[in-house]
From TrEMBL:
Residues 6-326 form the FAD dependent oxidoreductase domain. D-dopa binds at Y225, R280, G310. SUPFAM superfamilies: FAD-linked reductases, C-terminal domain, Nucleotide-binding domain. FAD binds at T43, S44, A48, G49, L50, V169, T186, G309, G310, Y311, G312, V313, T314. It comes from Photinus pyralis. GO terms for cellular component: cytoplasm. This is FAD dependent oxidoreductase domain-containing protein. Belongs to the DAMOX/DASOX family. Keywords: FAD, Flavoprotein, Oxidoreductase. Transmembrane segments: none annotated. The keyword Phosphoprotein does not apply. It holds the Pfam family DAO. GO terms for molecular function: D-amino-acid oxidase activity; FAD binding.
């Protein structure tokens, strides 16, 4: 397909991964990324990046949901195996989930059978962290550090003749007549752009500390986690539904440090490097679907790809591949809405 103009709105992990997938699938197309926030200003930059989809993560049905997750894992794992993986920000990591409440807390049906190792923790392993742990799992998964991945993805995208436009988007009608298809990867911005009341923010706050001795991740109760990454360790966290506060909260900072240091006392000596806050774009069903909008300038073909909540880094490749197939259907005139 020649002389195709496709716009991707949004430059977080979902937007950039979608743009790269479009370039891969449509070699002769002109792909333009349009956004008002890039790199460190995106919600993706806040994410710890551990590949761990929640059992509650949901696409339109179970088969598609699992396909998104599996395709994402295989995508990231293929990158992990290449020589430049450290430059992409993808690595393999192992760790523990502990709970005092229920065995179901430490089970993940999406990961069991997908990752190379997933087993119950032993009684001896419970002693790795102070606490009266009753249930635990140990597994090997992947980690994608967006502080590394976003710059790499941008560079790769630009090297393939990708275009970038920095602008705020007030309505998709602005693009009618300019692009053959627009892919909506605006995350929480879709709430206003699409008038989508099913999309809500879940505020998250994390701390970055210097703790190079930690090579293993740990999850505990109350959204408590310690995740080593490229050059720092992420301490978290919180899930505050319908909170729009994008500034660090001193009470959350104290709570995160107290909970993480209770799990791993060695963190008490770890210097604080920084704090990050993001609004996870949560939708009870992640929206990856086609739509033809009626605008003053004529019809506009749109493929939506948003609402990943706290699992945008985990599932970006899978939903992007799915979205690009929807783009192909719209370009072929097979759009059955």
């Amino acid at each position: 397909m020649a002389d195709i103009n496709i716009a991707v709105v949004g430059a977080g992990v979902v937007g950039l991964t979608t743009a790269l997938e479009l370039q891969s699938q449509f070699r002769n197309a002109k792909v333009t990324v349009i956004a008002d926030k890039f790199q460190q200003d995106t919600t993706s930059f806040v994410a710890a990046g551990l590949f761990r989809p929640s059992p509650s993560f949901a696409g339109p049905n179970q088969d598609i949901t699992r396909k998104w997750i599996n395709n994402s894992y295989y995508h990231w794992d293929a990158i992990r195996k290449i020589a430049e993986a450290p430059l992409v920000g993808v690595t393999e990591i192992s760790g523990y989930m502990f709970s005092k409440v229920s065995a179901s807390v430490v089970r993940n049906p999406y990961l069991e059978g997908l990752v190379p190792l997933y087993r119950s923790a032993t009684r001896e392993e419970f002693d790795l962290c102070p606490g009266d742990w009753k249930y635990g799992s140990f597994f090997t998964t992947l980690l994608v550090d967006c502080g590394v991945y976003l710059p790499w993805a941008t560079k790769k995208y630009l090297s393939e003749n990708g275009q970038v436009v920095r602008q705020s988007v007030n309505a998709f009608g602005e693009f009618a007549g300019k692009y053959d298809v627009v892919v909506n990867c605006t995350g929480f911005g879709a709430k206003n752009l699409c008038n989508d009341n099913r999309l809500i923010p879940i505020r998250g706050q994390v701390l970055k500390v210097h703790a190079p001795w930690l090579k293993t991740f740990f999850y505990g109760e109350y959204d408590t986690y310690v995740i080593p990454s490229f050059g720092d360790v992420t301490l978290g966290g919180c899930r505050q539904y319908e909170s729009y506060n994008t500034e660090p909260c001193k009470y959350d900072t104290l709570s995160i440090r107290e909970r993480c240091e209770s799990m791993l006392p060695s963190l008490k000596t770890a210097p604080l490097l920084g704090q990050r806050v993001g609004l996870r774009p949560h939708r009870d069903v992640v929206r990856v679907e086609k739509e033809i909008l009626t605008t003053e300038r004529g019809p506009l073909k749109v493929v939506h790809n948003y609402g990943h909540g706290g699992y945008g880094v985990t599932t970006a490749p899978g939903t992007s591949k799915y979205a690009v197939e929807l783009v192909r259907e719209m370009l072929m005139g097979n759009s059955k809405l």
